């Protein structure tokens, strides 16, 4: 065996020397290594401490520095929204039926019919603070419409509509020309949509119907307290009061309901109907709004609607000069 000898140099490097009787001494350099320390490296490395935020007007900070965006401000909430790129449609609920898929499974579905849906106007971020498209549907006699609304319909070059809704969009790429007709082929078979409608109003209801309470015993000495709610609060320990949010009897239904990620099963452009999977809130002949699902990828815009879209100018395009009438 070859004897191994460690030689320590002045440069704090380790050399390995192998000596033999027949061959001269040969030295092989090892890569430099850090000196051994009993303290873990995570305690040696200094922690990165965030610099404190200096507000405008402090020492060394000019007053023109913009303030950070607050997470609870309306602008921050608007930036967190994931609005769809396209506008939605207004349809009528016609009823429910069933379809069978390729495997023979019965799928309940709801038929929605689009009734003369047109684009009314656009809301821009520069003028209104958000991006939206105003859509109207249905038909109304001009005698039953107020004069301000008649002027609005005349400016939009549309007939008086029975219902007008706004659909928020992400940016200016979803703006459309006023008066554009929207039909059932705005959606595609197999895509996902979000459905919003006002559910049926049930009037004043008790706790068993409104919240599904089991009720009181039906026998064993119970007298006239079969469907009553029972105790509503503490006697002394809870402050002798009914806590806010307690489920009690009251008005049932009549609120806005949103169903997300609903699949479109069929689209008929001749009948102007859209068939969606499952049930839809609201009564028959009630208005329902449909828009691309926020939590899914947006579909491609149909070629028939390319001319109805307002194309935003390129960022480097020169602005058109305003014409000022100087005639007296």
From TrEMBL:
One of its GO terms (biological process) is translation. Keywords: Ribonucleoprotein, Ribosomal protein. One of its GO terms (cellular component) is mitochondrial large ribosomal subunit. Residues 295-318 are annotated as: Disordered. The keyword Nucleotide-binding does not apply. One of its GO terms (molecular function) is structural constituent of ribosome. Belongs to the universal ribosomal protein uL3 family. This is Large ribosomal subunit protein uL3m. It comes from Dactylellina haptotyla (strain CBS 200.50).
């Amino acid at each position: 065996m070859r004897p191994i000898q460690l030689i320590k140099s002045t440069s704090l490097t380790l050399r390995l020397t192998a000596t033999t009787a027949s061959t001269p001494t040969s030295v092989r350099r090892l890569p430099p290594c850090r000196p051994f320390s009993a303290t873990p490296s995570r305690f040696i490395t200094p922690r990165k401490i965030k610099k404190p935020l200096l507000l405008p007007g402090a020492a060394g900070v000019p007053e023109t520095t913009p303030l950070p965006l607050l997470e609870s401000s309306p602008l921050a909430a608007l930036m967190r929204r994931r609005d769809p790129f396209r506008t939605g449609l207004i349809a009528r609920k016609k009823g429910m039926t069933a379809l069978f898929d390729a495997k023979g499974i019965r799928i309940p579905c709801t038929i929605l019919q689009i009734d003369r849906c047109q684009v009314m106007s656009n809301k821009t971020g520069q003028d209104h603070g958000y991006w939206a498209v105003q859509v109207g549907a249905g038909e109304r006699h001009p005698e039953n419409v107020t004069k301000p609304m008649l002027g609005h319909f005349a400016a939009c070059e549309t007939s008086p509509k029975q219902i007008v809704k706004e659909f928020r969009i992400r940016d200016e790429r979803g703006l459309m020309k006023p008066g554009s007709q929207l039909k059932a082929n705005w959606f595609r078979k197999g895509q996902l949509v979000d459905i919003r409608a006002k559910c049926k109003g049930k009037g004043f209801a008790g706790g068993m119907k409104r919240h599904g309470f089991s009720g009181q015993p039906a026998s064993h000495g119970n007298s006239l307290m079969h469907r009553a709610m029972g105790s509503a609060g503490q006697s002394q320990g809870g402050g002798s009061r009914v806590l806010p949010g307690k489920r009690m009897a009251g008005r049932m239904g009549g609120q806005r309901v949103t169903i997300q990620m609903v699949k479109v099963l069929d689209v008929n452009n001749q009948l102007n109907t859209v068939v969606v999977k499952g049930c839809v809130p609201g009564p028959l002949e009630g208005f329902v709004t449909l828009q691309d699902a926020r939590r899914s990828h947006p579909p491609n815009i149909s070629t028939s609607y390319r001319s109805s879209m307002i194309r935003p100018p390129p960022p480097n395009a020169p602005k058109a000069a305003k014409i000022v009438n100087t005639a007296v």
